[in-house]
Amino acid sequence: PPDVAAGVKVGDVSFPAFPGSSVGLSDPALKVAFFALPYDQDARTPVTVFARDEAGNGATANLERQPFPKVFQRSKIPIDSGFLSRVVPAIASNTPSLALQTDDLLAAFLTINRDLRQQNNATIAGLASKTAPEMLWTEAFAQLGNTQVESRFADHRTYFYEGKEVDQQTHLGFDLASTQQAPVTVANKGVVVHAAYLGIYGNCVVVDHGLGVQSLYGHLSTIDVKGGDAVEKGQTLGRSGATGLAGGDHLHFTMLVGGVQVNPVEFWDGHWMEDRV
User: Fold this and answer.
1) Residue 216 has pLDDT above 90, yes or no
2) pLDDT for the residue numbered 43
3) Pairing state of beta strands 47-52 and 58-62?
4) I need a surface site. Which of 84, 115, 193, 202 has the fewest CB within 10 A?
C-alpha cells in the first residue's frame, strides 16, 4: 500500500523501495528496490528487507544472497610538478570554498585528493534523493563507443612524487579514452540532475535513470546539457576533456545505486540486465 515505507538495508545503509507500478507491476502491494554491496564492504554484511506503516508497525526479513568475492586492481600513479601545476590551480580557482593555498602544490594536491574527493563523493551520493520514482530505461546501458579502458572500477592507487609514496586512494569508476574532445553520449534514457564543475571530477554530468540508479560523466571539456533536461540514450552530454584531477583527456564514468558508486560492467551487459533486472 502507498502508506508503507519499505526497502533493503545493507549493513547500516538503507535503499528505498518504490511502488511496483514504477516497473509496470499491477499489484499495488508489491514494492521494488535496487540495492548494492559497496566495493569495500564485507561480503558477509547482513542484508535485510524491511517494511513499516504510518502507525510504526514494522517487519524485517533476512535476504538470501550469494556474494562472489572480487579482486580489484592495484596501480602506481607517478605525479610530477608539471601535473601539479596544471591541475591544482584550476581546481582551486573553481572550488573557492576549499580555500586552498597553492604556494605548496603537493600539499594542495593532497588536500584535493583526500578532503575534496570525500566532499565530492558526498555530493554525488546526495543526488540519490533526486531520483525519479519510476524506471526510465528499458534496456542495457551503453559503454561510450570506440573507447579504450585505461582504468577500472575500485582500482587502488598509490601516488608517488619524486620517487616517494605520498598518498593512496581508490578510483571509483572506469576511465574511457578515444580521441581528444570526443563526444560523450549518455548511457541510457534519463534526466540530468547535475551539470556543473565538481572538484576532482571537473566538468561533471550526472543523469538519473529512476529508482535510485544514476550515471556519472566526469572530466568533460564542455557541457551541453543543464539540470532538469530529459535525455535519450545516445544523446550528447558534452565532450571529453581533462578538467578536474585528470592526467589526460578521457571520460570518467561510473554507475550509482542509491548514491553508492558501483561497477558499471554489469549494467553494460545486456544478458545480465535481462536476467537480473
Assistant:
1) yes
2) 86
3) antiparallel
4) 115
